[in-house]
Amino acid sequence: MTENKRILFKSRPAGWVDASHFEVVVAPVGEPGAGEVLVRNIFMSLDPYMRGRMRDQKSYAPGFELGQVLQAGMVGEVVASNDPSLVEGDLVEGRLGWEAFSVAQVGSVNKVDGNVASLSHYLGVLGMPSMTAWVGLRNIGQPKEGETVYVSAASGAVGQIAGQIAKMQGCHVAGSAGSFEKAAYIMDELGFDAAFNYKEAGSLGDALAQACPQGIDVYFENVGGAMLDAVLLKVNPYARIVACGMISQYNLEKPEGVKNLGTMVGNKVKMQGFIVSDHMDLKPEFMAEMSGWLAKGKIKYREDITQGLENAPAAFIGMLKGENFGKQVVQIGEPPK
Amino acid sequence: MTENKRILFKSRPAGWVDASHFEVVVAPVGEPGAGEVLVRNIFMSLDPYMRGRMRDQKSYAPGFELGQVLQAGMVGEVVASNDPSLVEGDLVEGRLGWEAFSVAQVGSVNKVDGNVASLSHYLGVLGMPSMTAWVGLRNIGQPKEGETVYVSAASGAVGQIAGQIAKMQGCHVAGSAGSFEKAAYIMDELGFDAAFNYKEAGSLGDALAQACPQGIDVYFENVGGAMLDAVLLKVNPYARIVACGMISQYNLEKPEGVKNLGTMVGNKVKMQGFIVSDHMDLKPEFMAEMSGWLAKGKIKYREDITQGLENAPAAFIGMLKGENFGKQVVQIGEPPK
């Protein structure tokens, strides 16, 4: 247990990320100082926004530094503590390193209750991606009963929650994903009213018209580019576009142009970006509501769990290409018994 | 006075509008029926949104019909009335035809007080364009003291008012226009803090950086396309984009692509379209406030008055190309003495 496997950010990608941008190293396990704990990492979250942190430009999350260990949302177990607020055996979540063991300041991690749900769920349905869906709909989308809500990347970590919440609110809910299997999952398992595989749709406009026969009142936007352009031709008056992310653009050296923004004027459309970390005051409300839904079986959640830290780069690259099916997690260690 | 000059919508433009899309005809003056008045038209408003009405697609304003007289905001004098609510000599404004005399239902026109301001002002600073600026800032832009407000098409009918209101609210106000003369007017006469001629700016990004050294908090968007793209790279966190119109795109068969929408997520930007006619409940408040500002000399307003109905098509085409300097009006008849 003195060896720590770590993954460093080796070089900055210009277009698509590949294995050459990562370096796996072995280093000694760190020693926690005063007010610090040593965490044995168990589950790590991979999320599309992390691609943005690989750029050399200011953004809401600080960029990854070259030569340093990458960071991610993590759930782990405290194995040594130099602070009375945490003891050995406590389970915690926080933003830690892509590594087997992390030294963390006690204030940077939060205790989690391992009995509520699978530990990995704290990275998804009870964590940041799910709260992103919940906040985006609550603050921006504000779907009303009978309205049509369309969700892109609808089998992903955020999309599957956004669609299910909208469904509970009495909306016609449509979604798109990158395979027939995912589209079937969205309808058959998650209960969406309509779904399509955008990769095989002859025309996005026709696919949207079929999935959303009454037009689109709320677009939960995870994709950007051509998809956003197609949605802009289907928006109803006073539509809201929840600009959560635009993953189709993250690996392009030059983003695609969106041509149909003019429809926002005549249709009085609102498009608004947001970052979930601005809304942490809502976390208790979110946790209470989502835990309740989960306990009652009202929310389903699919995870795609890759085994082994050394496979995290490939899992991250695959996620950016849409190869995951459900929320992408990497299992680094065994959960406590 | 039995002859009525009228301008018909002859053919639908695909790209730029030209003279061939209009037809000047002479017809008999209409006879007002029950509940109708005959109006002698005096000033006609030409506005960029009218280009949208030339398209064969549903929009917030119904499209112009081929072979029919075009419509516009108008101020005129009642010369015959078949309803007790209006009498000969009353001055009215409403949406009437591109013609010397219009028959109108009494409910479709509003009496105006010819003593408050120049009659043409009811088409501009006391009319729809000015209320558009006022509503857009009030409901969407919501500039706060010390923030930076950037206005494109800033010497136009809407832009000049938007900038002056923002200046009264204690903002750093910058604007752009299509000539050095207009840029000088914006700064020297209207009191903007910075202005530039976008046609001669080597780089829109550099020009914006110089005009808005603290970034952009509110963008009053009249232009779209490349200008919007450049603004998206200068927005501050929580910026608001008031999507009022996108005139640079109106005559393109294929609109330009906007590439930088991704910055809306990280910067939590809101972009919202609106149509002033949704907000007519605010008209009394607007009229009271704007009349007060005008009377106190706090708002300046420049008009570009073309003489003669037969010159309206050329004035409209010129306005779409940015050749007007100030709010574009056509004088059709003489104001009453």
General form of chain A: globular
**Name given to the CATH homologous superfamily of the largest domain in chain A:** Medium-chain alcohol dehydrogenases, catalytic domain
Would you identify the CATH architecture of the largest domain in chain A? Alpha-Beta Complex
User: What does the largest sheet of chain A look like?
Assistant: 7 strands, mixed
Helicity of chain A, in percent? 10-25%
- In DSSP terms (H or I, runs of 4 or more residues), the helix count of chain A works out at 9
Distance between the termini of chain A: 19 Å
Strand content of chain A: 25-35%
Judged by helices, strands and strand pairing, the structural class of chain A is alpha/beta
Gyration radius of chain A, to the nearest Å? Answer: 20 Å
Oligomeric state of the chains present here? homodimer
Write a compact overview of the structure shown.
Chain A is an alpha/beta fold and 337 residues long. The first copy, chain A, has 9 helices and 15 strands.
Textual characterization of the structure:
The structure is a homodimer of 337-residue chains. With 337 residues, chain A is α/β, with parallel strands linked by helices. The first copy, chain A, has 2 domains: 3-123 and 302-331, Quinone Oxidoreductase, Chain A, domain 1 (Alpha-Beta Complex), CATH 3.90.180.10; 128-277, Rossmann fold, CATH 3.40.50. In chain A, 23% of the residues lie in helices and 28% in strands. Chain A has 9 helices and 15 strands. In chain A, the strands form 3 sheets. In chain A, strands 3, 4, 5, 6, 7, 14 and 15 form a 7-stranded mixed beta sheet that branches. In chain A, helix 3 links the parallel strand 8 and strand 9. In chain A, helix 2 (128-141) packs across helix 3. The longest helix of chain A is centred in the middle third of the chain and has 14 residues, at 128-141. The model of chain A has no long low-confidence stretch (mean pLDDT 95). Chains A and B meet through helix 7 and strand 13 of A and helix 7 and strand 13 of B. Strand 13 (270-273) of chain A pairs antiparallel with strand 13 (270-273) of chain B.
